[in-house]
# Entry
Amino acid sequence: DDDDDIPQLSSHTLAALQEFYLEQQQREGMKTSEGFNQYSIGSIEEDWQLSQFWYSDETASCLANEAVVAAGKGGRIACVSAPSVYQKLKEQDGKDFSVCILEYDRRFSVYGEEFIFYDYNHPLNLPENLLPHSFDIVIADPPYLSEECLQKTAETIKYLTKGKILLCTGAIMEEQAAKHLGVKICKFIPKHSRNLANEFRCYVNYASGLD
# Structure
């Protein structure tokens, strides 16, 4: 019988798989149900293969509020590889500022024209309408703790910002952050929704509310 060669899932595996699909359907159902906030942190799940770790709600709120103050009235804010800060900023819809998200993960294209595909390996491969020095503040969280990643992301940051930079990265990157962006470490310690093995810190090049 040809069917003998078809691998069979054990009843335990099958049950686990069905449970997974059911949970997935329930999550998707939540996302399409009335009252679901498409900008809430976790509405797009972390992809660890892309080195994605979302900030805690409190940290994202703190960084978003800092960005609004730093940008000033009518200010423009760019979030480079920092989607949870972007989401928190969008929750403040109605305040006098504009924001865009530069992100490699195309799932964030659900945010429409504010989404800009971004690959740090090509730091200046940006749309023509993204003019140099057109953002009052740039918030960036390079995906990898390497000098190469920071150096390339720094090119993007320096192209976009009028001057103010808020960088979030590992504490071990302090020397490289100063070298490539002229930023100094803040007292504020950012937290993630899942604990990271590496100590994480914020860095700025202006007088911020994070000290």
User: Anything to note?
Assistant: The helical segments are 11-32, 57-71, 83-91, 147-160, 174-181. Confidence is low (pLDDT under 50) at residues 28-36, 39-43, 46-51.
